[in-house]
TrEMBL record, chain A:
This is Branched-chain amino acid ABC transporter substrate-binding protein. Residues 1-20 form the signal peptide. Gene3D superfamilies: 3.40.50.2300. Belongs to the leucine-binding protein family.
From TrEMBL, chain B:
This is Branched-chain amino acid ABC transporter permease. The chain crosses the membrane at residues 6-39, 51-71, 77-96, 108-127, 162-186, 215-236, 305-325. GO terms for cellular component: plasma membrane. It is a multi-pass membrane protein. GO terms for molecular function: L-isoleucine transmembrane transporter activity; L-leucine transmembrane transporter activity; L-phenylalanine transmembrane transporter activity; L-valine transmembrane transporter activity. It comes from the Bacteria.
Amino acid sequence: MKRLLSASAVAALAAGAAFAQDGEAKIGIILGFTGPIESLTPAMGASAELAIAEVNETGKFLGGTTLSAVQADSTCVDSAAATAAAERLVTTDGVVAIMGADCSGVTGAILSNVAVPNGVPMISPSATSPGLSNAEDNDLFFRTAPSDARQGEVLASILGDEGVSSVAVTYTNNDYGKGLSDSFVAAFEAAGGSVTLVAPHEDNKADYSAEIGSLASAGGDVLVVLGYADSGGKGIIQAAADTGAFSTFMLGDGMYSDALLADLGDVLEGSYGAVPWSEGDGATAFADLVGEKADFNPEGSYTRESYDAAALLILAMAKGGEATSSAAAANVMDVANAPGEPILPGELGRALDILAEGGDIDYVGATNVELIGPGEAAGTYRYYQITGGAFETVEFR
Amino acid sequence: MDFLNAFVALSNFVLIPAIAYGSQLALGALGVTLVYGILRFSNFAHGDTMAFGTMVAILATWGLQAAGVTLGPLPTALLAIPVGILGCAALVLATDRLVYRFYRAQKAVPVILVIVSMGVMFIYNGITRFIIGPDDQAFADGARFLINARQFREMTGLAEPLAIRSTQAITLVTALIVVAALFWFLNRTKTGKSMRAYSDNEDLALLSGIDPERVVRVTWIIVAGLATIAGVLYGLDKTYKPFTYFQLLLPIFAAAIVGGLGSPLGAIAGGFVIAFSEVGLTYAWKKVLTYLLPGPLEPDGLVQLLATDYKFAVSFMILVIVLLFRPTGLFRGKSV
């Protein structure tokens, strides 16, 4: 038995050594392939693997090191299952970095239970909870999706531009609504605005007159609605307009919906809001790349962010000069931000050339990646105004 | 001027919504109280009876709208109410025949009937969702407002707006008519009197030659009528979604118990007590008080007794208080 153990230990060591010699490195892709967002994750996974395949095709990664992807299931909702899956990725498969996870809850669990203890960096393409900004991460956690904290700031700055100084806030009573509302209120008050009342509302109720009564009594020039367009948010706006309590609304990203405009039409005229948006050269280049080499919808939710997350991990390792976790963690911010040569999707080969020569790159990617604060996407938001029954873009910020 | 503004603000956000909501609750509670008074059990299926009747009325409304029939400024659904009542009556009569009659013959104790009615509730639940689905359904048409906020401001020059939706006015008028008709029926007609006699003393009523099955049938038909009317009014005023009707069960029972189970007058009073407490306790009184009080006394805070999250807790609290201190309710109904 003892001999068997030592034999396998030797074999494992040999395998580990073989690893380095062959020039192969693994990247874990952990997404909710089962669970509530299982319809989105196949495209997200394929998008991350597209970046890996693109790099392998060039053969320029650290002088010919091959990258491979190992997929695992985060389930989106079950933290224990996600932690076990991530543990397997790190200890059994030996991945050097993790692209994922997807939902905010499991992402936090994997970060604290697996990534931090093992020193493995992770980049989430889709976790937006503001709570993750303050998570204890030893500089190992990044995200290419903007935090809702950022959205709160954007909404507050739009109100500043509109010259509104006093608002009432209502949010849908769940983690998303609460997080977004907290960050908005903090940002707005820091900018000198006053919030008269923050009232949660439940979704799927028939009657919101009590909520509107309180909000109207508290007053405010604008009602900020951080809810869902097909549910409570719509009921709130309808009730507020019916009673004449508010006539101008500011809408959070959950309220961006064509159906809402069709249903409420005139009521929303002159209201405004913000929604995360990708546009420009990066998005176009990504769409072309996908059209050429893959088979999924390039406009799908978080597919762009997934490509960017995988590309950032690879470029960070290239910048550090070795396919290790520490090299990836140390250089993500560097390759993501200026200064340097801007890199679009499909130009990873060029980026690797520049890095090999010791140059600097500024990865732009499909979503205009700009990592701020603790390593999260600044995000581009489309600030729109509702005019003539349509969403009119005012500007991107 | 300040006093007027205060009154308008109060009407807009408390009085008018609470009166409309109270009327809807009162009609629902009347149905519950009739079943309790005459059939002697708490009918937990009442919310879903409302949902079913309203569903039939909605289907009929869509038929009428498709055929191009409208009532002008009034909602077409008013025309469809009789169809809804017929459908609902057929359902509850069939249920009585298949389910409740069996337990009545066995002289089952009320608590068994309560559990039976919960079973019926789940069946109704399923039938309604199977036919029309679990989603929101829009069926209101006609003029939306009797007077809207902007018109009112322009007319009166007051700072505070006042809006009266046509459905709120229709709710109140219909409720008044229905309640008047019900009281006339119970107090003036032979059938109504026999129902009250049966409710007061079953054995004595049987000895005087009252046909119990007929009383039961008439009761169910009236209950179906009340449930459908209450349901359609609620759906017109707010929105139709089967699940919200199920949730109405709590305030409706609270209303019936507060008023005194088995007492029709109590059901109406209870409906308004519950509606006014729900809206009034969660209302932020700041605006009204700011208009009324002189400068130095104006409140800084919102003067809100309960956050709106606790809206549903209000019914519970009133229920508990009434059961503790006056179990027979305000109008001396039967003790629960």
